[in-house]
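Checklist before submission:
- one chain only
- standard amino acids only
- sequence pasted in full

Submission:
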Amino acid sequence: MNDLILSPRARFAVLAAVLVGLVFDGVELGLMPIASLSVSKSLLGAAYTPTLGGDWFAKFTAALMLGAAIGGIALGNLGDRIGRTRAMGVSVLFYSVFAGLGAFVKTQEQMLALRFLVGLGVGGMWPNGVALVSECWPNASRPVVAGVMGAGLNAGILLLSQLARIWTISPDSWRWIFKLAAVPAVLGLIVLFALPESPKWLASRGAVKQTMPPLRELFQPQLVRLTLVGILISSIPMIGAWAASKWMIPWADKVGGSAHVGYKAATQGWWALGATLGSFAGAQVASWLGRRVSYFLISIGATALTVAMFQFTAPLQASFHPVVFAQGFVATLFFGWLALYLPELFPTRVRATGSGLAYNSGRFATAAGVMVAGMLFTALGGDYAKVGALCALIYALGMVAIWWAPDTGGRTLDD
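Returned file contents:
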């Protein structure tokens, strides 16, 4: 039994490495919402229009989500085959190297291709990092550890927003942020060559002969229902976050304009602060109230606050940032919830693949949803408020979907 437990020092090393990896993952997720209009104004020149800028924002987001969906499934599967740490190191190298190359693009199409490649690493980081930490920490610590994992992504978005308030991201000065996004490559190498592997994964590989590929096993009769439920409950908050919530940033950028150049960064900062707290609290709420009831209540709150953000306030109004903060807090409770729930749903031998498939399949739907939102944006004449409010209704589906999910409270991560 002692062979299945890392030393305290090794466990904290794993937690620190995964947390930093997720923070930089969050930087990648927050990069284009805050930089997209500046990038488009710079690269399109005289051809730029506000509606075209919103259309390209949707395309950049869809490319990242599509890449993340593919990367999460492929690299999650890789984590079950070659180990959590190796697959995580590969993921960090993918998102950092290709993000850094964004500093040298000359066209929108080049940036679009790079955002897809960045997405591969962004998608692979979460399932391998969460599986690794979940397996290296004892069950008594899991709600807190899951909360830390959930908060990591949004802490990265918060970090980025504060950097953007200090150093301006504008049509004349945006390439620096992509160069900075290449720094985590150092972490990728450290993880690849120095971080200890999950003892549970090592034991499962030695004790059980793998009879079929993990991805195929997830769709066998004994696991297919869990797989489909995991995909459904992960897809709803993912689509809501990217097809609805994220429109607040370019909306703030447009309304703030050159007269309030730091307003978009402040908006993202208020949202990210709420999101960091919310994604940490999500696992605690799930532990206190139960998995099903907590998800149901979060769905109600996310629907109400997202509609309120787009319909009952607006950028530059005094009430806007408080509502943005509240929406960020409530809507991201989902992600701390998922960090606790998804590893409980799948056995060790397919945990990274199952978590990655569930979490990232939502990104396929999100990519499609963002493109539909982009077309809706154009059809509505560039009305951010209407697009955001209509797309916010996706959160309401969670009130129904959660009752098909099994209640995993009280389970351990042993098979």
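Reviewer check: The two ends are 15 Å apart (CA to CA).
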